Protein 1
Amino acid sequence: MAHRALDEALDSLEGIREQPAWRSFSEVLQRRLAQPIPRGPQPLEEVYRELLEVVLPYSLGNRHPRFWGWVNGTGTPLAVIAELLAAALNANVGGRDHAAGFVEERVVEWWRELMGFPLGTGGLLVSGASMANLVGLAAARNAQAGWDVRRLGLRGGSFRMIFYASAEAHASVRRALELLGIGHGCLRLIRTGEDFRIDLAALESAIRQDHVRGDRPACVVGTAGTTNTGAVDDLAGLAAICRAERLWLHVDGAFGALAVLSPSLRPLLAGLEAADSLAFDLHKWMYLPYGVGCVLARREGDLRSAFSLVPEYLEKMPRGVATGANHFSDLGPELSRGFRALKVWMALKVHGVEKHARLIEQNVAQAQYLAQRVESSPDLELLAPVSLNVVCFRFAADLPEEELSALNREILMRLQESGVAVPSGTVIRGRYALRAAVTNHRSRREDFDVLVEEVVRIGRELVG
Ligand SMILES: *Cc1c(COP(=O)(O)O)cnc(C)c1O
C-alpha cells in the first residue's frame, strides 16, 4: 500500500500540468466528507480509494505551473522523500541528543551564513513566517523593555513601547503584536512612497512625535518583499535609523529574503544583514512543502532569555539522552517539534544553493516578462512597479473606477473557476488588481502568455 501511494503521489506531480489549476470542492463532495465518527476499523484499501476520489483531486492548486495566487510554494518530489523519512523516524526535535537536532542546527547555521548574519546568531525552524515574526518580535519586546517582561508582563514599565512598520507590512506583524500584549494601537503604520517602500522621513517624524508624547520607540519592522507588490524597504536606511535611535530592527523577509541567494538580486536586500532579527519562509520561495520557515536573532541570548524555561522534567544531564545540545525549545515557544529540517537539509544538499538561486532569478525574469506583456497590451494596465516577483495589473476599460474593480473581480473569479490559471487579487491605491506572485519553479514563459491572453479574452467578453 505504501509503495502504491508513493508511486501515485509522484505520478500526480509528474502529470500536474495536464490537470486544471483548481477545481471546486463541490457541496456534494462536502456532504460525502460529513461522516459520523468511525468507531470501528475500515479497510485501508477503501479509505485510500475514498482519498483518491474525494480529497486528492481537489487541492488548492499551488503545485500547478499556472498558480500564482497569494504567495504559495510548489513543493518538490525530493521533499516527498524527505517527508516520508521524517514521518518514519518521528523525531521530536524539541531537544536532547539525537542526529535530527544536529541536522536542524546545521540548516540554521547555513541560513545564518547565507543571510549574512554573524557568528553568535541564534535561530530555529518554525511553521512559517507568521510564527517567525512572532518569535522575532517577542525577542524584540523583551530586549527593548528594560524590565523583566516575563515576570511583570507589560505592566512592569512606565511607558508604552511603540513598533513601526510600513502600511504595506504583512498582517502577521500586527497579529504578533496583538498576541504579545503590545496591541496594534502601538503599531504605527508608516506611509510608503511611489515605489511602495517605507517612507524613511515619515518614519523619522513618527519616531520624534512618539518621543515628544512620552512613548518609547522600540522596534522597526522592515519588509523585504511586501505581499502586495514585492517591494523591498530600504533596509540599510532602516538599519541606520535604528542604530541612531537604539531601536530593534526586525525584518519580515517571508519570500523576499530568499533573493539573497542570487548574486544579481542580493544588492536589493543590502542592509538585511544588519537586522537584529529576521523572519523568512522556506515553503514559499524555496519551493518546499508546508510548513517551514526560519527565524534568526543576531544574539542567540535574546531568544534564550525570551523563551528558555527548564522545569525539572526537562533537566539537562552531562551524559545520556538529555545532554545540553540542540534544545530548540529554549529558543522558541514550542516544546515538541517535528523534523522539518530534513527537507531543507536534503534540498540544499541535493540541489545546491546555486540551483535555488537560478530558479529565483527565473521567477524574477518571468515577472518582468509578464509586466512587459501587460504594458504592451492596450487592454491591460500595470498597477505597481515590479521590483521582484510580484505583478499587479488589471483589465483596463473606459469605465468608472467602481465598475472597473467589479469587472476585474469577475475576471479573476472566472479565470480561477476555469482552472486555467490562479492569480489572486488585491487593492493597490484604491484600484482592484489581479496579482501574480511568482514563487513557482514549474512555470514556463508560455504560462504567462496564457494568463495574459485569458484575462484579455474574458475582459473583452464581459465588456462586450
Ligand atoms: C506569507 C507572508 C507572511 C506569513 O507567512 P506564513 O508562512 O504564511 O505564516 C508574512 N510576511 C510576508 C511578507 C508574507 O508574504
Protein 2
Amino acid sequence: MTSPRAAGSTPDDRATIRRDEIAGRLAAVEQRIAAACREVGRDRSELTVVAVTKTYPASDIAVLAELGVRDVGEARHPEAGRKVEECAAAGLDQLSWHFVGAVQTNKAAAVASYASLVHSVDRRRLVRALDRGAERAERVLDCLVQVDLDLANNGAEHRRRSGAAPAAVDDVAEAIATAASLRLRGVMGIAPLDGDPTVAFAELAELAARVRAAYPGAEVLSAGMSADLEAAVAAGATHLRVGRAVLGERPALR
Ligand SMILES: *Cc1c(COP(=O)(O)O)cnc(C)c1O
C-alpha cells in the first residue's frame, strides 16, 4: 500500500504499539523464567512457553510468531478453530496449537482436527471422542491427563470443575495410551486459586513421575501460569501456559 502516513493513531501505529507491548511483556516473562531456572539449576531449554491467546485476536498470534513464539494455547472451541483458520489464511503455518481448556465431548472431534497437544483430557468418554476425531482427521493426537489439584476439595464431586481426581489419573492415562489415534505425553494441572502452588505442583510432579514410569513417552509436565510459573519451574514443569503476563489482562470470562 502506498497511502501517505497520516499523523495520529493509524492502524499501523496501533499495530506497532501492540507489537512493542507484547515484545516487552514477553521479555519480562523470559526474565522471570531465567531467574526461576537459575534458582533451581534448570536450563531454559527444558521449558516450552505456551502463549495462551484466548480472547486475543489472531493478529496477536502473528506478532508472537514474529517474536519466535510458535506454541499457542487456546481454551475454547469454536474460538480456537476460528483462529487456527485465520492464522493459516495469513500464512502462519509453523504454529503448534495447544488446547488447554475443558473440552466438551461434542466438540472433541473438531479440537482433534487442529490441536497439536490437548492438555485437558480428564475422562474416558472424552478419550473416546478425541480418538474418533483424530482417526477421522487421519492424525495422531498428543494428549495430557489433566489432574484436579484442588486437593482440599478432591472428594467433593460437586466442586469439581475439570481434571481427573488423582485416583483416576492412571485410568485415564491407560485409556489414552491404548487409544489407536492418541498418544499419551504426560500430565497437566492448574494450581487451585486459594492454595499454595508449591504444594499443588509437588503433588502433580509426583503423579507425573508415576505416569512416566508406566509410559516412558509421557515426559510432559504442564504446570504454571502467569501467577505461579516460578513454582512450576521449581517443580519440574516442561510446559508453562502463560496468558496475561504475555498479552495483558483479559476481560473477565463468563
Ligand atoms: C487461561 C489459561 C491459562 C493462562 O492463564 P494466565 O493467568 O493468563 O497466564 C493457563 N492455563 C489454562 C488452562 C487457562 O485456561
